[in-house]
């Protein structure tokens, strides 16, 4: 009888422990699956009427995002390639920025355009499908009468679909940057006669090749950087020839670099190092 009571007591304890641990695990799983960032949306929109009257710096604001260009490689290539040097000398260069973590393309774009980290804007992976949790430069430009345009960047299109007038889709593959830059130029030509323009151009070639061949130190990766820089310089020359450059504030930037072996997403300094060049012709 004593042994029987003991066995029942052990079974009851085992059953209780199984139940409570199962319950806790299930709750933990549910909270993870249904997680939503409690801080997203915490920042208030800026009300520009309260700040004063602004004179826009330029009629057009053009961003060219060179996805996955490693800054250390760029500065190294500058020594041997005159096109890279020309681009980096074109405007104010800031080469010691630090990307957010995770150092992925889509969270980085969201941070560039909101000024907020992923904890605030809510975009913590490339798979994120929602809208942004906070205000952005795009909405502000739209409110100030800028026509919002984009080419070659599906995430920009997704985030700002409520504000975009026209966006040219370019599938990632050979020639992505060339097509995207040409489409961006076409958009700027068509819209800038009648409106101020904010144009976002995505150039994905270095990122695509970086993932394929293994990033820095691989000849194809470095050559791809040189090629997209030549294409970018050609666009700048065309803008100059057509009288558009002196009406445009041009920002050329990256979102993250690569480490050797072809990965990014982590904390490595060469992955997180970011740059931008700001070019503005004085009137
Ligand atoms: Zn990227």
What's the multimeric state?
A: single chain
Termini separation: 100 Å
Number of strands: 7
Q: Class of the largest domain, according to the CATH hierarchy?
A: Alpha Beta
Estimate what percentage of residues fall within beta strands.
15-25%
Please give the share of residues in helix: 40-55%
- Segments where pLDDT lies below 50 for 5+ residues? none
Number of helix segments?
A: 12
CATH fold group of the largest domain: Alkaline Phosphatase, subunit A
Spatial strand order of the main sheet:
2-7-6-1-5-3-4
Which CATH architecture of the largest domain would you pick?
A: 3-Layer(aba) Sandwich
Average of the residue pLDDT scores: 90
Calculate Rg over CA atoms: 24 Å
Bound molecules: zinc ion
What is the N-to-C succession of helices and strands? HHEHHEHHHEHEHEHHEHE
Structural class: alpha/beta
Major β-sheet profile: 7 strands, mixed
Q: How many separate structural domains? A: 2
Principal-axis shape equals elongated
Describe the secondary-structure layout.
Layout: H1 2-33, H2 48-51, E1 60-66, H3 71-80, H4 82-89, E2 92-98, H5 105-114, H6 118-121, H7 137-143, E3 146-151, H8 154-159, E4 164-168, H9 176-191, E5 196-203, H10 205-213, H11 219-241, E6 248-253, H12 269-272, E7 273-280
Parallel strand pairs: 1-5, 1-6, 3-4, 3-5
Antiparallel strand pairs: 2-7, 6-7
């Amino acid at each position: 009888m004593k042994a029987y009571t003991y066995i029942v007591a052990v079974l009851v304890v085992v059953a209780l422990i199984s139940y409570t641990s199962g319950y806790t695990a299930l709750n933990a799983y549910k909270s993870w699956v249904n997680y939503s960032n409690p801080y997203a949306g915490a920042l208030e929109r800026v009300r520009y009427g309260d700040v004063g009257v602004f004179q826009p710096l330029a009629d057009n604001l053009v961003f060219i995002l060179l996805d996955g260009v490693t800054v250390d490689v760029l500065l190294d290539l500058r020594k041997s390639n005159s096109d890279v040097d020309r681009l980096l000398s074109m405007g104010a260069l800031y080469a010691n920025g630090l990307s957010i973590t995770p150092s992925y393309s889509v969270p980085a774009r969201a941070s560039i355009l909101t000024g907020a980290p992923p904890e605030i804007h809510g975009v913590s992976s490339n798979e994120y499908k929602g809208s942004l949790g906070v205000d952005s430069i795009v909405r502000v430009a739209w409110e100030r009468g800028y026509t919002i345009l984009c080419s070659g960047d599906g995430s920009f299109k997704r985030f700002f679909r409520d504000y975009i007038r026209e966006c040219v889709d370019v599938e990632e593959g050979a020639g992505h940057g060339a097509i995207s830059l040409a489409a961006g130029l076409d958009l700027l030509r068509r819209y800038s006669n009648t409106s101020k323009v904010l144009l976002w151009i995505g150039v994905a070639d270095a990122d695509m090749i970086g993932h394929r061949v293994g990033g820095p130190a691989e000849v194809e990766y470095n050559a791809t950087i040189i090629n997209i820089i030549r294409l970018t310089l050609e666009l700048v020359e065309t803008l100059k020839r057509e009288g558009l450059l002196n009406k445009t504030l041009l920002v050329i930037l990256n979102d993250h670099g690569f480490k050797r072996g072809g990965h990014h997403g982590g904390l490595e300094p060469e992955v997180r190092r970011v740059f931008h060049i700001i070019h503005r012709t004085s009137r």
